């Protein structure tokens, strides 16, 4: 092909010159063939791309095809049910509710109800009309030491920072939260002007970078925290221990992105790389974590303090619970992020192969809290691919009290799942800092769509609650949700995730499937105490049974 290009290029140049001698206006043809020939000559000698080097000009079509592939697949190949991460069925539902269009479907379900993994709700013959139910169920978040408990909606906006999202996206999300009286998590990037301006309720997330409450060396600044946490708009404070999309991974904000505005919001130096380490520097043990929680609660004037995590080593969560029992200091809420959670940018290995999925995470956290008799003090927030009323009901049935949603809220803003969040080229102006793209997102219109989506999704969850014959979300249990696990085998969540007795982890004998976690954990360290556990103990701890037995 290299020789062919040289021959074709020589022929075109020669032919153009000869024709131009007879008819001079034909010289203008060089405007078209000249750039192509020059590009081909560059391709012949550039060292980086083998295909382009061997197939000058034509080889570049490969990169065009790669760029077009996701778009062609989404619009012309994928079915309504097989799109990833969110199917067209999910996306269409969100768009319809955001725009207040007809969200019903004709001719029955498109899902294969005999496929493994299909899930459904057990309804009741004595169903209750949703008109008789509270259309805006609330959950009071705040334990015994909380002076300013917060009445939260069962659906709120999950953590997304200004910087990862555009200013217009943040303004729209918070504006929708203000209209609908639900909460907006700031993400670890701090409280920006765009979070504050619409006056919607905020959950201030504090990550390992301590943005908005840090010293120059990256350590935690208690004075800065005290000032910002006391603002009326901040309703709860969330300490981010890990994130479902990239648990155990820090991050770097490159110097070129640290604008004067970002520097002011995050309390960092303009023009310098900003490091978010993988772990916190303000504490290093479960006991220190709870002392940190207690200090933040005091500085904030008694607002709810909690933490967010994706479950990794189970022993670490046991250790935190042991520390709460020993100290009598409780967090007010725990946000459980599933491994299927989204992010603007994550290493593929972390996104695909690190972190416990949400369903198992919520069930585990609820059971351990219940086993330590702590659940009565602590609310659980489920976060990870929550988009429909059934998602709300499923997570609440597993043990959550309320849910957070990120990507569904982005769809409500107009996100088309272009999968360009990490390239600053988001075509809808949601996940970009490009001013020309941001202009496409009109705040006054999109905030209404966020409000509509929230209201109608909560309403659908309430309708499902009534269909099950229940009046309150706290009446949901794992017995109400069913899942096909084989062609002729169905299990309720109660069977898949059996409950354990309240307080059963306070004294021996422990439920057998929790013995290993209890043996590996200590309140004085996050590190597992493997040296205490033998291979025989590992084999003895059967994770599929709750049979209790005495310790030897």
From TrEMBL:
Q: Share an example GO biological-process annotation for this protein.
A: glutamate biosynthetic process
Pfam families linked: Glu_synthase
Q: Where is the Glutamate synthase domain?
A: 154-470
Please give the superkingdom of this protein's source. Answer: Bacteria
Spell out the molecular function terms from Gene Ontology.
glutamate synthase activity
Q: Which InterPro entries match?
A: Aldolase_TIM, GltB, Glu_synthdom, YerD
Recorded hits in PANTHER family, A to Z, give:
ARCHAEAL-TYPE GLUTAMATE SYNTHASE [NADPH]
Q: Indicate the family of this protein.
A: Belongs to the glutamate synthase family.
Q: What is this protein called?
A: Glutamate synthase
Q: Which species is this UniProt entry from? A: Pedobacter cryoconitis
